[in-house]
TrEMBL record:
Transmembrane segments: 25-47, 59-80, 100-120, 140-164, 194-214, 235-255, 275-295
Gene3D superfamilies: Rhodopsin 7-helix transmembrane proteins
Annotated G-protein coupled receptors family 1 profile domain residues: 38-295
InterPro entries: GPCR_Rhodpsn_7TM
Organism name: Adineta ricciae
Keywords carried by this UniProt record: Membrane, Transmembrane, Transmembrane helix
GO cellular component, one term: membrane
Cellular compartments annotated: Membrane
Designated name of the protein: G-protein coupled receptors family 1 profile domain-containing protein
Length: 329
């Protein structure tokens, strides 16, 4: 979650959302538990089912689910612990804050970057599949870009959090230790993170998703290929749904940060920004459920296991005994 401003926004970094802590605690807890369950079930299916595992369009989804699950298992417990300890980050040591920041900024923005690549790659999978029809093509057009993006995110956030020459200020009395590591105060690095790691990926997701939807609909009308449309429909609907999720939760926060870059006073709209920041957790919570709607076969299997019980056939001897007993009475 990116809160980069043009100046040191101490008002935001030293404040807390006005929503009462007990409400936040139960809201996060009851949202996190089912989301973790859904993420684990989906990951199990996508990794262990051979057809799902080998489908190229599922590889980024697996990575996104993994990043989200990391946040659910690390950051949310940190937040719940903060509330449970009467508003104090425990343990109150730099390692806690650095880990929290790495997950909050690195994992979250890394997910946004991967989502942007997913939006671009869907155009290749739908309209230029010949590019990845060979092993060489799959390496350069699929595996290599994903590897480069993951390496970039990992190197960038390890560097800015652990090696960047600035003095960290750890606020143990507010969530996420103030959510304002010192590298964000650097004019170049802070601006790079805000634009390259946040604004640009969010725009790419929205633009490429909309363009893909238009291209698919136009091709369907022009060629009227029902079989091909069936294959395209799932990937298109999945991307558009995830794009809508990204727009709803990321765009408001990005606009607020952009307004501060353009001169909005640091003490204006702080509470609103805190709500936008907090709401981004629900992008992570809802992500696996939105993905789940794209896997109808998996949903059917889950429903059958939960709601459908096969009734064992009654043997002839048991049936005969019932009839005899009924006649006797």
């Amino acid at each position: 979650m990116d809160t980069t401003d043009s100046a040191n926004n101490t008002t935001f970094g030293n404040s807390e959302i006005s929503l009462p802590r007990p409400v936040r605690f139960w809201l996060l807890l009851f949202s996190d538990a089912p989301s973790i369950t859904c993420s684990l079930l989906l990951l199990h299916y996508l990794i262990h089912d051979r057809t799902a595992r080998t489908a190229l369009n599922n590889h980024v989804i697996i990575l996104l689910l993994s990043l989200g699950l990391t946040t659910q298992l690390i950051e949310i417990p940190f937040y719940l612990s903060f509330i449970g300890n009467n508003g104090v980050v425990k343990p109150s040591v730099p390692a806690t804050c650095l880990t929290w920041w790495f997950v909050s900024f690195g994992m979250y923005n890394g997910g946004t970057i991967l989502m942007a690549w997913a939006a671009v790659e869907r155009h290749i999978l739908v309209f230029n599949y010949k590019l990845i029809s060979t092993s060489r093509g799959r390496f350069f057009a699929h595996y290599l870009p994903i590897g480069i993006l993951l390496l970039y995110v990992l190197v960038f956030y390890i560097y800015v959090l652990f090696f960047f020459p600035c003095e960290m200020n750890y606020e143990y009395s507010v969530p996420i230790c103030g959510a304002y590591p010192c590298y964000q105060q650097d004019p170049f690095v802070g601006m790079w993170e805000f634009i390259v790691n946040n604004i640009v990926p969010s725009l790419l997701v929205a633009v490429f998703s909309m363009v893909l939807l238009i291209r698919v609909v136009r091709q369907k009308r022009r060629l009227n290929q029902r079989v091909q449309w069936s294959k395209q429909r799932k990937m298109t609907i999945q991307l558009v749904s995830l794009s809508a999720l990204n727009i709803v939760f990321n765009v408001p926060l990005n606009l607020m940060s952009l307004a501060r870059l353009c001169g909005l006073p640091d003490d204006y709209g702080v509470d609103v920004q805190q709500y936008f920041y907090f709401s981004c957790y629900f992008l992570i919570f809802l992500f696996p459920f939105v993905c789940l709607t794209s896997y109808s076969e998996f949903c059917m299997k889950v429903k059958q296991k939960i709601f459908y019980c096969k009734v064992k056939p009654i043997s002839a001897s048991v049936r005969s005994a019932w009839v005899t007993n009924a006649k006797d009475h």
